[in-house]
Design brief:
This protein is an alpha+beta fold. It is built from seven helices and eleven strands. Strands 1-2-3-4-11-5-10-9-8-7-6 form an eleven-stranded mixed beta sheet, sandwiched between helices.
Length: 283
C-alpha cells in the first residue's frame, strides 16, 4: 500500500460492470466445456442483464449470475429456466447482487427460492496504483502449458483444504469435480495462470481474467504447508501490477464473509463494494 486510501464507492453502474464480467466469466467456462464435450448439453442463456449457465453435472459453474441490472426477469423466462434445470436434476442457484433491481429478490422469493448464504465483492481502483514489492522469499510467475498439471494440482489441493476462518461456503465439491471445472475455466478465453514459489517449492497458484477494464482475481489457493508465509499476498500483488499495466481500472475479488482471503485483500486496500445473496430453488 502507498498510504491511506480514500473511500471507494460502488454505484449501480460500477456494480453492473462487475456483474457483467462475472456472468461473462461463467459463460466462458461453459463454452470451454462445450468445446471439450459437444454432447454435454451445455446451456448459456442471457437473462435480465446476466446469464444462466448449466455446464456439466455437479459443476460449480451451474448458476445464474449478473441478474437484475436490466430489470427483473419475466415470469415466463423463469419458468423456462427452471424447466431446463429440472430436466438436468440441478437446483437453480442465483447469486444476486445487493445493488440489483430489488424486484428480482421479491420475485424469486415468491417462487420458492431460499436464501443459502452471502458472498462479498471487494474492489480496488488501479488507475493510481504504484507497483509493490513482493513478500520476501516468494516469487510469482505466469504459468505456461508445460506447468499446467502443477498449477491444477496446487489450486485444487488448496481449495480442498479451505481456511477455517470466517463463514464457511454453502458449497462443497469432490476433488474430481474441482479438477474438471478448473481445467475448463483455465482453458477459457481471457484467463492467465500464475504459480508462486518459496525456494524451489510450488506454494500456491492463482488466475486472472481481464475485460472491460475489470480485472477478476480468481482461483487463488495456497498449499497448507505454505500458509501464513505471504504467498497469497504475493499472488495478489503480482496480478494487480499486471492488471494495471494492461489498462484495467479496477480489480475485483469475491470472498466468503470474514474469511482469511477477505482479510488479506483488505490489508492491500480492497474495500467491500457490495454483497451477493445466494438463493437456491430445489427441483
Amino acid at each position: 500500500m502507498t498510504g491511506k486510501r480514500a473511500s471507494f464507492f460502488a454505484d449501480t453502474g460500477l456494480a453492473a460492470r462487475i456483474e457483467r464480467a462475472e456472468s461473462e466469466l461463467i459463460r466462458a467456462g461453459a463454452e470451454a466445456v462445450r468445446r471439450r464435450n459437444p454432447e454435454a448439453g451445455v446451456l448459456t442463456v442471457p437473462i435480465a442483464g446476466g446469464a444462466a449457465v448449466w455446464a456439466d453435472r455437479d459443476s460449480p459453474l451451474n448458476k445464474v449470475a449478473g441478474l437484475g441490472f436490466a430489470g427483473a426477469p419475466e415470469e415466463g423466462e423463469l419458468d423456462a429456466l427452471e424447466r431446463v434445470f429440472d430436466e438436468r436434476s440441478t437446483p437453480v442457484r442465483v447469486e444476486l447482487a445487493s445493488l440489483a433491481d430489488p424486484e428480482v429478490a421479491a420475485r424469486l422469493s415468491r417462487r420458492g427460492y431460499l436464501f443459502v448464504g452471502f458472498e462479498n465483492v471487494l474492489g480496488l481502483p488501479l488507475e493510481d496504483r504504484v507497483p509493490s514489492p513482493l513478500p520476501a522469499g516468494v516469487e510469482v510467475a505466469e504459468s505456461g502449458m508445460e506447468e499446467f498439471s502443477e498449477w491444477l494440482d496446487v489450486v485444487v489441493t488448496g481449495f480442498a483444504h479451505p481456511d477455517d476462518q470466517g463463514v464457511p461456503s454453502d458449497e462443497e465439491f469432490p476433488r474430481e469435480v474441482l479438477e474438471r471445472v478448473m481445467r475448463d475455466v483455465a482453458s477459457a478465453a481471457g484467463f492467465s495462470r500464475y504459480l508462486a514459489r518459496r525456494g524451489n517449492e510450488i506454494a500456491g497458484g492463482a488466475s486472472l481474467r481481464m475485460g472491460d477494464g475489470v480485472a477478476q482475481l480468481s482461483g487463488a489457493a495456497t498449499l497448507p504447508a505454505h500458509r501464513r508465509q505471504g504467498v497469497q499476498t504475493a499472488l495478489l500483488l503480482a496480478r494487480l501490477d499486471l492488471a494495471r499495466a494492461a489498462g484495467c481500472d479496477i480489480a475485483v475479488v469475491t470472498t466468503q464473509p470474514g474469511s482469511k482471503s477477505q482479510e488479506n485483500v483488505q490489508r492491500q486496500g480492497f474495500q467491500l463494494l457490495y454483497t451477493r445473496a445466494v438463493l437456491s430453488r430445489e427441483r
